[in-house]
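pls ignore typos typing on phone
nicotinamide-adenine-dinucleotide + seq
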Amino acid sequence: MDASGIIDRVPKQLFLGGQWCDAVGGVTFGVEDPATGEQIARVADATVADGTAALDAAVAAQPAWAATAPRDRGEILRRAFEMVTARADELAVVMTSEMGKPLAESRAEIAYGAEFLRWFSEEAVRIAGRYSVAPNGATRLLTLKQPVGPCLAITPWNFPLAMGTRKIAPALAAGCTMVVKPAGLTPLTMLWLAGVMAEAGVPDGVLNVVTTAHTGAVMGPLIADPRLRKLTFTGSTEVGRSLVEQSAQGLLRVSMELGGNAPFLVFEDADLDAAVDGAMLAKMRNTGEACTAANRFIVHESVADEFARRLARRMGALRVGPGLEDGVEVGPLVDAAQRDTVAALVADAVAQGATALCGARVPDGPGWFYPPTVLTGVPASARVRTEEIFGPVAPIFSFATEAEALALANDTEYGLVAYAFTRDHARVVRVYEALETGMVGINQGIVSNPAAPFGGVKASGFGREGGTEGIEEYLETKYVGLAL
Ligand code: NAD
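k done
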């Protein structure tokens, strides 16, 4: 496979008003392959003026795009879905090269990410309002939906396509224009997508992409610009908090998809084979670099040892290596900082008395690899209990009663997703009602689905992406009172 030939063909400039442009001053920044630590490309490093030019283009394109027939907006998104799907093999190479995950994981993300284009191509024609008679009978109440206006999307590196399409597709379906700022570690996937979306017929200025190594400096003025109507962000809770503060000044509409610390509950009556299969998905999808990754395995004391043994056997057998190589199941982490963070979390747990059943040793050689690791006997004071791991590390805690399990599960500032394995139906209902999360997976280790509302509560943020809820984030409700 000619990965460098594929990377060479990806656009490296800013995409502003339908044109590929260099940054003012022609400055660029480097993109690395995490499997080698070597630079694979350089992309435009936008300045504040470039960011403003992107918003100028989005503002200029807004009225015509809002007036475009919903069916036409839907058809463009549908074409984009088909083009991304047809070119998935090429995009998988781009994604794996800049982000590290194995090709099979990149293909899975592309299938998932493309589904948002298809789902919202169908939702574009289902934007509806209401009509009712006022309670006193004297007037009529008309409720309509209108696009919120130009949006800014800021996305993370862990799902470089899907975190973008989850925002772009509903925004465009609703009739909003957008500026997208992908993560500096993984800009190539979004630049590739921008080229495909333009080919699919997205008009100039409707989708603009700004890559920059000076994120705060370039995004700040855009967030403060009164022409911007909405900010949608996926990333860390820390950055999300700061963006909400910045958005307060202009009273922007905001959606925040932030960090997680998912509990994975295994009750004594669970099907243990299914629980281990689910754990592999919930932990190892995307090498553990997912906001939905199981962060704390909370297992009934009667099955905890057996569960840990089986999970360690499966995780320890996974093949670790460069994501572009055939048969590799676990790629490198995204960069040195991420690898060091994961290694430090494991070292902290082990220093406090935890036992590593597999992994826990940073390998020699180039690249930011970390081996799948299972930890037992983890004390409550270990940092892995409260902090987002974002790597292939599974700490196991045990419990005696259902009440204890639920208290442990909810003992976190985060509230994105929780998983529970049990065969008791009444317990299923008690558990999903008691968990303080935006999403719950029952007897399954993955919840992400374009047809379902994805999002969190507490420090995991607010707003929903996907489902019928996803497009509402980009629509304003207007009420008209009609006198007779
Ligand atoms: P991050 O917060 O460091 O960066 C996310 C994006 O914000 C990047 O594009 C980055 O350049 C940008 N950014 C950073 N500082 C900024 C600033 N001052 N102003 C404006 N933008 C700024 O997060 P990350 O490391 O890229 O991603 C990992 C995090 O994302 C994890 O915490 C993970 O849980 C979270 N995440 C959440 C979801 C979800 O849907 N809830 C999905 C994926 C990832």
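Residues 154-159, 163, 181, 183-184, 215-216, 219, 234-236, 239, 242-243, 257-260, 291, 388, 416, 456, 460 surround nicotinamide-adenine-dinucleotide (CB under 6 Å). The chain has a mean pLDDT of 98. more later
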